[in-house]
Amino acid sequence: MFETLNKQINWLQPSIIRPEDEAELPTGSYVPILSDIILPSFAMAISMFVLRKLFDRFIVVPFGAYFGVKETVVKQHIIRHPVLESEYIINKSPKDDVILILCKKTGMTERQVQVWFRKRRKENQASDLKRLSDAGWSFIFYALLSWYGLYVLWDKPWFTSSMDCWIGWPAQAVTDDVYWYYLIELGFYMSYLYMIFTDHKRKDFMEFLVHHSVTVALMILSWSINCVRIGTLVLVIHDQVDYLLALAKIAVYIKKQTMADIVFAIFLPMWIVTRLMIYPYVVLYSIYIDLPAYANDSRPYIQMYDRSTIGQVLKSLLVVLQILHIMWTIIILKSAATKFTKGKLQDTRSDTEEEDGNEDNTEPIDNKRNYKISNGNAVNGKDGNMEANGNSYSNGRT
């Protein structure tokens, strides 16, 4: 069965290496075969998922208990109003015109409806322990892979000269360490694609989904046409900073604010350097400038390059990553700016979607002294004031 499946997978891989070029490779050299990465990546993703569960149970739970991290979310005392519940399913943050319509349907005041929706959103927040688990797993993975990536690429010629990504391309041999580096990274991102649907929903859910989908697509497509060298540069550039962001989040959840601020201060310039300087200068320049120059001057591949659908898709996806970098940089800079205006760092990129500011210390809106339910409508309500404090750091892996 697997042999048949592998044949079908390999049928999808374009034949871009000429026999005479492959003959120039050293004896025993390996060139990428699509089936060698697809099925193993699913096995790796399942392994990552199992490791995540073990990590939560045997490391996160005792670690969180030691630092007093809350395992549950404070229960919100709200009445299950059918009209509001129906609207909540469609829209968790209704606009003013919708709120006015809901007021007419329920007999509640505008403020009561706003408070109800805020409390309802807060009810769906992930616990601090769940957030700690997410940040901890990201920290462990990114920290290990950042150093492993450097170890794998340190002696590779394309690590210091991006033009070497294309010398001999597409007839380039892939070593075992590069294969495993690719496989582990691909397995991780595939497992994360599943977990972002099952974990708490983030405020930047769509951006996160796009980023991880683009990353998986880039790795598979680059493997299929042997653009593995440039792919490894993309991975190693990104891995050098994400573990710092995860560490800052961990510090927030265990109430080590000074540590969080210090780590974030280190993270911010590294993010800007890697995402806005090194990535476009090395990766985008290489694939948009170096590759066409090499194809024109050194190999008869210019026609294949110009007409290759996969090549054009790869170029486009790399630009999508850069757009996400810019978007997240703006959010991170806004977060850093709050340090000077409010004295606290707060980044809305990837904490729970339902988290709202100004929500604590609220009078329970189901207090019988405030209003009662009559024929399904709430009447005689009392407004409540809400405030919330807290710091959050994001985890936008790019």
From TrEMBL:
<feature type="transmembrane region" description="Helical">
    <location>
        <begin position="30"/>
        <end position="51"/>
    </location>
</feature>
<keyword id="KW-1133">Transmembrane helix</keyword>
<feature type="transmembrane region" description="Helical">
    <location>
        <begin position="135"/>
        <end position="154"/>
    </location>
</feature>
<dbReference type="Pfam" id="PF00046">
    <property type="entry name" value="Homeodomain"/>
</dbReference>
<protein>
    <recommendedName>
        <fullName>CERS5_6</fullName>
    </recommendedName>
</protein>
<feature type="transmembrane region" description="Helical">
    <location>
        <begin position="309"/>
        <end position="333"/>
    </location>
</feature>
<dbReference type="GO" id="GO:0005789">
    <property type="term" value="C:endoplasmic reticulum membrane"/>
</dbReference>
<keyword id="KW-0472">Membrane</keyword>
<dbReference type="GO" id="GO:0005634">
    <property type="term" value="C:nucleus"/>
</dbReference>
<feature type="region of interest" description="Disordered">
    <location>
        <begin position="344"/>
        <end position="398"/>
    </location>
</feature>
<keyword id="KW-0539">Nucleus</keyword>
<keyword id="KW-0256">Endoplasmic reticulum</keyword>
<keyword id="KW-0238">DNA-binding</keyword>
<comment type="pathway">
    <text>Lipid metabolism; sphingolipid metabolism.</text>
</comment>
<feature type="compositionally biased region" description="Acidic residues">
    <location>
        <begin position="352"/>
        <end position="363"/>
    </location>
</feature>
<dbReference type="GO" id="GO:0003677">
    <property type="term" value="F:DNA binding"/>
</dbReference>
<keyword id="KW-0371">Homeobox</keyword>
<dbReference type="InterPro" id="IPR016439">
    <property type="entry name" value="Lag1/Lac1-like"/>
</dbReference>
<dbReference type="GO" id="GO:0046513">
    <property type="term" value="P:ceramide biosynthetic process"/>
</dbReference>
<keyword id="KW-0443">Lipid metabolism</keyword>
<comment type="pathway">
    <text>Sphingolipid metabolism.</text>
</comment>
<keyword id="KW-0812">Transmembrane</keyword>
<dbReference type="InterPro" id="IPR009057">
    <property type="entry name" value="Homeodomain-like_sf"/>
</dbReference>
<dbReference type="Pfam" id="PF03798">
    <property type="entry name" value="TRAM_LAG1_CLN8"/>
</dbReference>
<feature type="compositionally biased region" description="Polar residues">
    <location>
        <begin position="388"/>
        <end position="398"/>
    </location>
</feature>
<dbReference type="InterPro" id="IPR006634">
    <property type="entry name" value="TLC-dom"/>
</dbReference>
<feature type="domain" description="TLC">
    <location>
        <begin position="127"/>
        <end position="341"/>
    </location>
</feature>
<dbReference type="InterPro" id="IPR001356">
    <property type="entry name" value="HD"/>
</dbReference>
<feature type="transmembrane region" description="Helical">
    <location>
        <begin position="179"/>
        <end position="197"/>
    </location>
</feature>
<feature type="domain" description="Homeobox">
    <location>
        <begin position="84"/>
        <end position="127"/>
    </location>
</feature>
<feature type="transmembrane region" description="Helical">
    <location>
        <begin position="264"/>
        <end position="289"/>
    </location>
</feature>
<dbReference type="GO" id="GO:0050291">
    <property type="term" value="F:sphingosine N-acyltransferase activity"/>
</dbReference>
<keyword id="KW-0808">Transferase</keyword>
<feature type="DNA-binding region" description="Homeobox">
    <location>
        <begin position="86"/>
        <end position="128"/>
    </location>
</feature>
